[in-house]
Amino acid sequence: MMGRGAGGGRGASSGSGADASIGGVAPAVDGGEAVAPAVAPAVAPAVEFVGVSFAYPDGTQALDGVNLRIEPGERVAIVGQNGSGKSTLVRHLNGLLRPTAGRVLLDGRDIRDVHVAKLAALVGLAFQNPDRQLFGGRVAAELEFGPRNLGVRGSELAECVKSALAAVGLQDEAETNPYDMGYSRRKLLAIASVLAMRTPILILDEPTTGQDARGVARVRGVVRATVAAGRTAIAVSHDMRFVAECFGRVVVMRGGRVVLDGTPGEVFAERHWSELQAAHLEPPLPAVVGARLGLGSTPTDAALVERLKSNA
Amino acid sequence: MDSRPGDPIDGVPDYVTRRSTGFYRALNPATKLAVAALEVVAVFIVPGWPGPGAVFVALAVTALASRTTRALILIGLAASPLVISIMVVNLFLVPGAADPIFRLGPLAPTVTGLGVGLLTSARLLVFSSAVALAYVTTPVDDLLADMSRRGLGRRGVFVVGAAVQMVPRTLERAGEIMDAQRARGMDTEGHIWRRARGLVPLAGPMVFGALTEVEERTMALEARAFTAPGRQTLLRVPADTGLDRLLRWLAALALVAIVALRVSGRIG
Questions:
Q1: Are B205 and B247 found together in one domain?
Q2: Are B119 and B211 in contact (CB under 8 A)?
Q3: Nearest 5 degrees, angle CA A163-CA A169-CA A172?
Q4: B117 and B27 share a domain?
Q5: Residues A79/A252, Cβ–Cβ less than 8 Å
Q6: Residue B184 shares a structural domain with residue B116
Q7: Smaller CB count within 10 Å for chain A: N or C?
Q8: Is B7 domain-assigned?
Q9: How close is the nearest chain B Cα to the Cα of A138, in Å?
Q10: Does the CB of A125 have a partner CB in chain B at under 8 Å?
Q11: What is the mean pLDDT of each run of 10 residues along chain B (268 residues)?
Q12: Domain extent for B199
């Protein structure tokens, strides 16, 4: 596994097409062994998992000693096969699940005794299935639900709703009944309903599932705007192209442990393909083409084109 | 290495190769249903304590041997609100009871009421445990496959399967919806009024999800030739041994005997 901040991570992102300069210095950590950071972080990490393990009541060990730091403003994608522990991991961030061992810290603070309703002000989590979330009779009412729960009222509430709708391109649908919308737009609405809460940390669970190219572009825009606003964006995804193009850091999970952690350029480099295969993942097509042509790691279209031009 | 029955096979669903093992679990689903039916009838038809007492002993032995004690205790705990209400109602309101344990103003719990309450509660707990034991030791797909094998039509099997799976599926969906709303700041741990308000965000996705699921499930069944004529090929047939047949006959005979004794007035 490569190390972020401790050597391999930030410097090896050339050609990734993703912005590896965001965030602070993240010490590389894996299933239990932490690597000392090259430079001590000036602020507490936005998110820190310290030796987190979790077993479901039926005995399934979903997380096994996860150590992971995510700095404020980072764009992090968590990938892995079904059952690798991705969704379980992010559900620890808003207290929906509590670790059976280890600690979860937000902004340096252990959240073990903090209620979910309180954590909702810090962490917004858009679930994979919008139909398990939407209940409002109008799109606007759906978007008001989260901010209202956080105590937002009046013009500020209206502004939250307006900007969230604009972020996902649903600004003309404020009065539409969510159940009259197609699946992809309901999914965007579910994301907007969390965006409206303006939490410092935004988590998207499989945001591109069921989306066409336009919808995926919307989601990319949401992630970029989130980070541009100084917030932290985390996504769980099986969409490697989206991951490579949109995130500065990729965390690969297998069997409840972190097995790879680095920039898209590092994680999707040919030398890690066997580990990706073990996690039932395929590198994005530009990475495969670039490797076959001997161009090095080219996880995105832009990186591949750039490398081809420079080699021409 | 040679594979044995029950070993997983690459590319073949676990459903096809899985074999139930261990005491009671390995019995045919119909056998477990027959035993449960006998226990339920005995609990309610045999007068007084012998009925629930005997069935309780049988259930305790079976639960210990099949390692389902914890599940049955949890089910018993889940029934505790009902048990408490039965006890309260009977303690104070049994008609004609004139043997108060003590008096506290207008309240006078009676010995008769206590006895009736305990017996009714015991019957409820033993009844629910008998049904629960059959449920927790029988995978639903085993039950449905066995029903298909015995000639119950596919519509009948579907109805039974949907009914049996409705509760766990609904609970799972409710859990997910609750998580999604809690993640948006819905307070489920505060004042009761705040928690009551949380029912609306829960009910909407529950109802809508159930309706769309029915539609999708119907189309999926049609797409997989649910209404095709002819008999279905079963990928897996649960074992039905000589011991199963013997137990079913014994259960049927015992059930008939108990009913006959009760009707003829030999007991009770």
A1: no
A2: no
A3: 85
A4: yes
A5: yes
A6: no
A7: C
A8: no
A9: 12
A10: yes
A11: 60 71 86 95 92 94 90 88 92 86 86 93 94 91 89 85 83 89 82 74 82 81 83 83 95 95 85
A12: 146-223
